[in-house]
Amino acid sequence: MTATALPAPPSGAEVSDRAATAGKPSRPENRAGWLFATPFLVLYLAFLIGPVVIGLLISLFNTTTVRAGVGSWVGLSNYADVLTNADFWASMWHSALFTLLTTPFLVLLPLLFAVLVSRLARGQTFYRLAFFAPYVVPSAAVCLIFAFMYTPQTGLITNAFGWFGLTAPDFFGSTSGAWFAVVLLTVWWTFGFNFILYTAAIQEISEEVYEAALLDGAGPWQQIRMITVPLLRPTIGLVLILQVLSSLKVFDQIYILLAGGPNYSTRPVIQYIFDTGFSTYRGGYAAAATMVYFVVLVVVSVGWFLIRRRNNAANA
């Protein structure tokens, strides 16, 4: 009888090569992935990257929106004008102030109501629909509704102050009243989006965790404080950064309801860019202001990302 030679076991290099190539997609799969992604990439380049590049180029010229062409080359002088313009920094402060006024309400109140609704035995669907419904209403309709309610002497909100023996602020003639009006409108209008994010996160928490806590004698408020809120911290962080970026980009409700008034005391930076670009026809200057504000938003986003990554590394 002749002995059959067994194949030699693979060497360490061969094993590592097989392991490295096992998770890699084949060339046809890679090509198919790029084909499926092509429509998105085309739209992304055309409507996101393209406008940014065009805006950056226009900001270097003395472009006007009433004359064809990009105008004459001015270099960085538009940026110098933006950075030394008091009106620009005032509008930046108005956007920041709006963010400071609305973010606490739109982060904490939806969390509170989402937790309370999740504890209801019945009617959860109704409350979820009721809280989310205003978010799908167009901004123009919302501003028109609140303009009627802010009307002196006949408005619902104006009369509500009188029911409690208080004097209603001048919602359209004073700066403090205007901020109160736009903050109240924004909280009512956009409350539902964050509420839904919290609701979805709460549904991901296993019921077994609550059952175990109940067996250990934990009451409802103890469960909320020791289980629900800690497990919602990643969602709270997500809602916070999304709300900050959304508030910094405010435009619709202030422009439609107040037109930045009274006396531009509530005009946000995006309305300032709109006014300089389409009212005074300074397209190059408006593009430079847009680039500066774009950098501010990127810095805020990157800063928040680095903070979150450091906290995650510390907790790991």
TrEMBL record:
<dbReference type="InterPro" id="IPR051393">
    <property type="entry name" value="ABC_transporter_permease"/>
</dbReference>
<dbReference type="GO" id="GO:0005886">
    <property type="term" value="C:plasma membrane"/>
</dbReference>
<dbReference type="Pfam" id="PF00528">
    <property type="entry name" value="BPD_transp_1"/>
</dbReference>
<feature type="transmembrane region" description="Helical">
    <location>
        <begin position="285"/>
        <end position="307"/>
    </location>
</feature>
<dbReference type="InterPro" id="IPR000515">
    <property type="entry name" value="MetI-like"/>
</dbReference>
<feature type="region of interest" description="Disordered">
    <location>
        <begin position="1"/>
        <end position="27"/>
    </location>
</feature>
<keyword id="KW-0762">Sugar transport</keyword>
<feature type="transmembrane region" description="Helical">
    <location>
        <begin position="129"/>
        <end position="151"/>
    </location>
</feature>
<feature type="transmembrane region" description="Helical">
    <location>
        <begin position="171"/>
        <end position="197"/>
    </location>
</feature>
<feature type="transmembrane region" description="Helical">
    <location>
        <begin position="235"/>
        <end position="258"/>
    </location>
</feature>
<feature type="transmembrane region" description="Helical">
    <location>
        <begin position="96"/>
        <end position="117"/>
    </location>
</feature>
<dbReference type="InterPro" id="IPR035906">
    <property type="entry name" value="MetI-like_sf"/>
</dbReference>
<keyword id="KW-1003">Cell membrane</keyword>
<dbReference type="GO" id="GO:0055085">
    <property type="term" value="P:transmembrane transport"/>
</dbReference>
<protein>
    <submittedName>
        <fullName>Multiple sugar transport system permease protein</fullName>
    </submittedName>
</protein>
<keyword id="KW-0472">Membrane</keyword>
<keyword id="KW-1133">Transmembrane helix</keyword>
<feature type="transmembrane region" description="Helical">
    <location>
        <begin position="34"/>
        <end position="61"/>
    </location>
</feature>
<comment type="similarity">
    <text>Belongs to the binding-protein-dependent transport system permease family.</text>
</comment>
<feature type="domain" description="ABC transmembrane type-1">
    <location>
        <begin position="92"/>
        <end position="304"/>
    </location>
</feature>
<keyword id="KW-0813">Transport</keyword>
<keyword id="KW-0812">Transmembrane</keyword>
